[in-house]
Amino acid sequence: MRVSRSLPALSRAVALLAPLAVLPLGCAPDAGPTPPNFATAEPTSSATGSPLRSRLSLARHAALHHRLRLEGCLRSEGLEVAVGAQADRLRISLVRWGRTDAWRKGGASHDLASGCVASGSSAGQAGGRLTVEHQGLLEHWDARAMGLEHSFVVEARPPGEGPLSLVLATPGARVQVDASGEAAVLRTPAGRTFHYRGLMAWDASGRRLPAHLGAAESELALVVEDAGAAYPLTIDPLLTSPSWATEGNQASADYGFSVAGAGDVNGDGYDDVVVGAPRLDSGANLDVGGAFVYLGSSAGLGTTAGSIPTSSLGADTYFGFSVAVAGDVDDDGYDDVLIGAPRYDGGEQNEGAAFLFFGGRLGLVTVGAWTVESDQAGAFFGYSVASAGDVNGDGYDDILVGARYYNNGEANEGRAFVYLGGDGGPSTTAAWTAESNQQGARFGRAVASAGDVNGDGFDDVLVGAPRYDNGETDEGRAFLYLGSASGLSSTPAWTAESDQPDAWFGDAVAGAGDVNGDGFDDVLVGAPRYDNGETDEGAAFLYLGSAAGLSTTPAWVAEGDQAGADLGSAVAGAGDLDGDGYDDVVIGAQDYDGAAFNGGRVLVYLGSATGLAPAPVWTAESGQASASLGFSVAAAGDVSGDGRRDLIVGAPGYSNGELSEGQAVLYEGCTAPDSDGDGLCDLVDNCPAVANPAQTDT
Q1: Rg (CA), the chain
Q2: How confident is the model over 318-361, as pLDDT tens digits?
Q3: Distance between CA 54 and CA 358 in Å, rounded?
Q4: Residue 512, CA distances (Å) to 265, 427, 548, 586, 621 in order
Q5: 306 found inside a domain
């Protein structure tokens, strides 16, 4: 996926943290060519082509990042960046640099034309760089797999006292920098967001220099502590934007409350996604809800959804509260989609229902859908839905549904139901049910396929009960039930608890895939109210599979490290995002305060032979207060057929014209290339320009 380029000989490589990407840290690549003068292309050859295609036309220059649909247009006012052919553009220009007591004015040392090569124009040789030559400073724009790399080379120490600063103007855009100073969100007046992150700086000897971002209105500052540094200096962040984003376009729709990969519903070889909006209104009926399926293609996800009709549903149904791929329950070669509506009224108020829609050559078949209800008032059946995998090994995928408030001897104990797949679809009678047998435990708040944790050839299921008590009030518990030729076990083969009051362990559960490559599937459990230094920071716990089943103690724990972050409010197996043969995971922290209060955060952790990495390889945050990015997270499969695994993330509190309309965004993963041939995808290689399989370079 990545096309790696060397920086000029006077610089060394730099670490860039971008959506699903880590670029090189502090290693010495082969020397590149001498930097070009302004407005000349620096072509490179590549057998696979480059994400950047450059074309020079007089003094006009356009840089097209085809995969991310980023168009860069260099003008006299600086670089304009847009997604696709949108009129909504972000402008970035260096307006001053140096020190606060001795500023130097930014601006190209050559005149720039105001025109720009049209988007989609035929490209010349693949590869290229846009370079602006300022007095005493070179500014470069390069396409990388996950965005536009924006680097500066400062040739000599400028006069004055204090740190070195480069100030970028972003006219009309709102700039928000997170509390750490490591990332910024740039929001255009029309609501398009761009992320500026991964700021790193180093001197001529390769020494890393402290650096951070700062903001004031429509200006973004890159601040470097350069005391004692050997010049020239290199300063190098990354600008990117999600490759796909859609919105609810209705106030309080909560679009993105639930997201899921839909499998391949039309059999065209591209994976699809489904997004839920449980509070979408239908005419005069409020909070009917909605679910939207977006089909994959060679160009990625479409922006026009195939919505599922809800005209037969009444107000307050909350259709789309939960969404999932059901697998192929009727074995017809098309994946099917499952939608939960926990406040559906059939014969009983708020009994809830689950709806199955079959895939077909033209997409989802939205008539004649399979529907099941709980037949108990207030059960909230469909609060959670998931594929159960194939729990009995008959070749048909099965369905798992949770009813958080189901009563059977104990009020609000909760129940989980499994319906077996077969010719013509699943049965409407549950083949298996389980309960918590404890009042108020909310068993079934979260349900998931665990994969095959013990390697016996049958899929297993995981159920969360976040208010379960066993020594501590509302500590929560997760339950694992093993599959077999006769179906699921009637008693759990494994349970785990948080051993901390009010942790809500089991509020989210997921199969993690096989994160350590031992042949056994592993599981994730979220506890969004877990405390360990910070109140309600939240945590996610990984339990490893084995021939004996799941481990009794977690092999790995991640925490929010911020009070009220609610990390673990959403967890999911991400598949193998970096193409190294180990599955990875994605975790949401819906109330994380980064660039904005309760903006939310998403974190990706990579698998390896030793398990999950202790630190995330990638994070994303929302620059909008109360957007709750990461409220829902899921593997999207491969929506463009490029061999990369993708992620879909929901932000139901997002506003852009309508308050809390919600948003869903897609981020793409990585497989090839391995630029230096050391067996590590460039995304996880700390030095993709130098063979370094042991990752020992510093």
Answers
A1: 26
A2: 999 999 999 999 999 999 999 999 999 999 999 999 999 999 99
A3: 44
A4: 23, 28, 18, 9, 22
A5: yes
Q: How far apart are CA 426 and CA 370, in angstroms?
A: 8
Whether residue 236 sits in one domain with residue 258: no
Q: HSE-up of 501 (CA within 13 Å, CB side)? A: 3
b/e map 46-66, b = 16+ CB within 10 Å: eeeebbbbbbeeeebbbbbbb
Q: What does the block give as tokens for 167?
A: 């100030």
Tokens of 571: 């967890």
Is residue 122 within 8 A of residue 62, CB to CB? The reply is no
Report the C-alpha gap between 647 and 453 in whole angstroms: 23
User: Looking at residue 569, which CATH number applies to its domain?
Assistant: 2.130.10.130
Q: Which residue type occupies 631?
A: F
Judge residue 367's burial from the number of C-beta atoms within 10 Å of its C-beta, 0-12 exposed, 13-18 middle, 19 or more buried. exposed
In a domain, 207, yes or no: yes
- Among residues 630, 626, 632, the alpha carbon closest in space to that of 654 is found at 626
Res. 72: pLDDT tops 90 = no
The domain of 138 spans 17-240
| Residues 586 and 664 reside in one and the same domain | yes
Q: Are residues 188 and 39 in the same domain?
A: yes
- Structural domain contains residue 249: yes
Decide: 673 and 1 in contact? Cβ < 8 Å.
yes
Choose the final residue of a domain: 214, 240, 266. Answer: 240
CB-based contact 556:586 (threshold 8 Å) = no
Closest CA to 402 of 426, 418, 390, 391: 418
- Is residue 548 within 8 A of residue 486, CB to CB? The reply is no
Long-range contacts of 119-124 (CB under 8 A, 24+ apart): 119/62, 119/64, 119/71, 119/82, 119/84, 119/85, 120/64, 120/85, 121/55, 121/62, 122/55, 123/53, 123/54, 123/55, 123/64, 124/41, 124/43, 124/53, 124/54, 124/55, 124/56
Does residue 685 sit within a domain?
A: no
Task: Report yes or no on whether pTM surpasses 0.90.
Answer: no
Tens-place pLDDT, residues 464-496: 999 999 999 999 999 999 999 999 999 999 999
At 442, give phi and psi (nearest 5°): 60, 45
Residues 426-439: tens digit of each pLDDT: 999 999 999 999 99
User: Of 662, 663, 682, 664, whose CA–CA distance to 672 is shortest?
Assistant: 682
Place of tokens 């609610």: 566
Q: Residue holding tokens 């930097």? A: 35
Residue 201 shares a structural domain with residue 325: no
**Exposed e or buried b per residue across 21-33, where buried means at least 16 C-beta atoms within 10 angstroms of its C-beta:** bbbbbbbebeebe
602 in the same domain as 489:
yes
Q: How far apart are the first and last CA of the chain?
A: 24
Element (H, E) at 630: none
